[in-house]
Predict the 3D structure of the following.
Amino acid sequence: MSISVQVTPAVPLAEVMSGLVGPDHVIVGAAMAAFATDVYRARCSPSAVVRPGTLPELQAVVGAATSARAAVFVRGGGASYTDGYLPTRSDSILIDMGRLNRIVEINQRDAYVTVEAGVTWKTLKEALDPLNLRTPFFGPFSGIAATVGGSMSQHSISHGSSEHGISAQSVIAMDVVLASGSVLSTGSSARGAAPFCRWYGPDLAGLFCGDCGVLGVKARITLPLLRRADAFECLSFAFQTLPALADALRTASLERLDDEHFAIDAAIAQGQIARQERSGKRGLVAGVIASSPSKWAALKQLVRMARAGTDALRAAPYMAHFIVEGVTARDARIKADRLRTLMTVAGAEISNTVPAVVRGMPFAPLYNTLGPNGERWVPVHGYLPHSRVGEFHEAVTALFASRSDQMSRLGVWNGGMFMTMGSTAFLYEVALYWPGRPSAYHLQAVPADYLAKLPPGADCAETVAFVDRLKQDLVALYAQFGALHFQLGKTYPFGSVLQPESLALLRSIKRAVDPGGLMNPGGLEL
Ligand SMILES: Cc1cc2nc3c(=O)[nH]c(=O)nc-3n(C[C@H](O)[C@H](O)[C@H](O)COP(=O)(O)OP(=O)(O)OC[C@H]3O[C@@H](n4cnc5c(N)ncnc54)[C@H](O)[C@@H]3O)c2cc1C
């Protein structure tokens, strides 16, 4: 079924959209700010925020907007910070995927799950847990809000990534609404079959992964299913230097022992302590109990965490945290022991509080979108080959040293987060914090009772300009080292740094699926 509508210049876009999805699902005026502001900032307001509730409605909305020559921007959970879904012009609509949030099919026999693109990772996990099933990659830390469609559109890494790779490695098939409003299907669905296999000629699903919505709107996505492992071990290690940490992570990645891992520096760890103290421990305890294979295991873990207190979070300049899974408890223990051997060459084992909390609560409320004292927060990241991590670390350290006077005067500070991607790449993420007030984004994303406990912040134009400059300088530094990026949005270079042949091919594909250049203009520099 499809819905069509006559678009004439005399009919305002918002009115056209109301006719398609109903007036209750079209937002105009000041209320749009909550949708058109990402974690970092806002740019300009669209004509309307539109919330389609079915695939035919989505098709009609996209088709009607592009026939009116309006640009189309798409917001999933809104948890990005690179202008990805931010409108760059006002003759546009911003589609919010929040109502396309149904789990379409869990096919246990053929081991796949199909979801509408607006389903969050948390919702998906909650649907699969009772069936003892999981998807291989099962979401970013922001999965309480982040959607399957958003993560597939900008590449995501975290839960399940050490063992199973990034978001794009957990796709079987997609249905994508193109600028015309028609639907393109990938993998086995491209020949009208059930979405049971991705590999069928050229990888069309891969083309749309990481496209930031410039090639179309993902409507439905199918992911593979695996049996969930109950047995797991959580481990943490402290390191004195970044090169020692990076080398240990590199060595561990060659053996693929863990399901997931992440490493942080002392500045981020200190923030975790303050947030934990503000948000209370009830959720953490409940999470540890729910994720433990037995009540006895939960009790042991909670006692261990209570004994360690917050000392484990203050242990060293760098800390690496791992979750290891096994088919049996013995299997998990063997892998954990091997990891211990590798990590203690240069590191020291510390209390496993942090990964135990993450295992218990993989999708925490979005407290981390603000600093521990309510500061504003934005991460800047890049993937590097292992061989360049040491020199990049020196360059970043030198950049911060050169700005240290201004940073301390303005109250700007930084932290670091690290991970390996497969065995070949290292994620080096810098987080910037600065004094400021919560934005329209935070007011809708962060629980109000937590916001109420934060000291009141104040915005300062000089600080905002300084942070923006620093962010741009970091992006340039990453470029200098040949780093690659997920979440390209409208922040990181892409089109401008591609080889001519690659750029020409991508531009011709863009023209084929979006001849008017109306899908997320400005994204990927295409
Ligand atoms: C606290 C916090 C923790 C985070 N942790 C992680 C992490 O662990 N790993 C990680 O990789 N990232 C992380 N992120 C970044 C971000 O949340 C994720 O990358 C997430 O996948 C974004 O999903 P989303 O639904 O919020 O996408 P959005 O922010 O809504 O959109 C992202 C991009 O995808 C496009 N898009 C969204 N939906 C569609 C669709 N249906 N069709 C086409 N295009 C679409 C948008 O236009 C935009 O360009 C984190 C962010 C926060 C705030």
